[in-house]
Amino acid sequence: MSTVKLPIAEPKHVFTPDASSREVFHSFSRGLCPQCKKAVDGVRVIREGKVFLRKQCPTHGQSEALISGDADWFLKSLTYIKEGSVPLQYSTEVKNGCPDDCGLCPDHEQHSCLPIIEITNHCNLECPICIVQNRHNYNMTKEEFGRILDGLVAKEGNIETINLSGGEPTLHPDFMDLLDMARAKKEISRVSISTNGLRCATDYAFCEELARKKVYVSLQLDALSNPALRVLRGPGDQAGAKEKALANLERAGVRTTIVSTVAKGVNDQNIGDCIRLLYEKDFILSLTFQPAAYTGYGGEHFAPHDPMNVITIPDVVRAAEEQTGGLLKKSDFLPLPCSHPSCFGLTYLLKTEDGYMPFPRFLELEKYLEVISNRGTIRPDHQLESAIKGAIDEMWTSAGQVPDVDKILSALRRSIFLMYPEDRALALEERLHIGESLVKTVFIHAFMDVHNFEVDRIKKCCTHYAMPDGRLMPGCAYNNLYRERDARYTGAVGTPQIWGKGAGKG
Fold this sequence. Notes:
Layout lengths: L23 E9 L6 E9 L2 E8 L3 E8 L2 H7 L36 E5 L23 H15 L2 E7 L9 H9 L4 E8 L2 H5 L1 H9 L3 E5 L5 H8 L4 H15 L3 E7 L8 H10 L3 E8 L4 H4 L13 H11 L10 E2 L8 E9 L2 E4 L6 H8 L9 H16 L7 H15 L8 H9 L2 E7 L9 H5 L3 E4 L5 E3 H8 L4 H4 L16
Parallel strand pairs: 5-6, 5-15, 6-7, 7-8, 8-9, 9-10, 10-14
Antiparallel strand pairs: 1-2, 2-3, 3-4, 11-12, 12-13, 12-14, 15-16
Helix pairs in contact: 2-3, 8-10, 12-13
């Protein structure tokens, strides 16, 4: 497996470690001053088994933030970096340097694994932890939405999944029409929506319509009880609403992902509960943990918040093992090679006759990395077919070294039979649908705020906001630097000119 070295910035300021702290310099970086949000030089240092980002602003001085709660995880994760796959077209030129040219520019190192379209900034909750800025003054028009879809196809060709978000997307007055427009695009295999679930909890017919349209739901679910939910999402019977939403989605047969924002000292003790729910419910296809990012109207003012004491990816991994009694283990999780390794950790779970088995326990590492490279989900293509057949052959020759080998072999043979039948070739969407019943996923997606923002990570971002003017904005760059200047919300006029074409995908 080839690796790519992290880019090293030439520092304008010299940092001298404090000898009494026993810290070790690791590498140069570039981040944001948490006060003025200007790009500044920094370094990564290792201290007490953790990794910190220290930055120096010429105006506001030095600042520091935790970027990894486990130095060993951080160092190992850097060995999984792979070259990205660039988009078919770019929308902005390289002018001022990252992160000031976002759109994407030719300096960006990864295409869009998951384009997000914010169709409204209206919402029916005022979440204390919200990372966006819901000003309740915008609903995307059908014309804007159509232009975005056309632009995504031009830049990406075929797209596995697009996500409709907000605000609360289900409040959009033309919501169902927008879903139909997206589903009508043959180049888009799946359409998902990110929702707080209030409409799903109160309108069963709505859930039935989502199922009929084959729309996926990403349901915000930070915990299963009210105390933690009220801290993160505000007053009221939040747990009761989530329970009703889950029941309606399950009854209607809507394929669902649960998304849990994790804040230290608030709901980090509920990580195991969410994992067990994933294991127990067939209609829940995946689980995403999002370590809290302190940006937006809510997040910037969320208390308590100490940038030196936050949840990071390896902390979620550790909690997953401790809170599930080893149902999931640290060794089951790996970084996602298509993004920067500090952005994603994940594991895939194969459904067997009596439970789920994480892929890394039976699939050779390099084959596993090939399956997940340059994408956020398992794609049932020839690479996956080859990897599964290779795993079957390998386990035949070393059966005594793999626990539960008979159950794993049976599950793998079943997946080959269903997804790759000998008598006909299935369409990608059909194979995706079948694969989702055989494999579940646990993601850990770490968004950045002004404290832990790093330019290296932005350049490898594969989660992009799609703008009506044609730009694709890396998620954390948009949330920290561009959202507050978005003309749709501020009433400003004038947008960057769309220009040029990039190289073809690698």
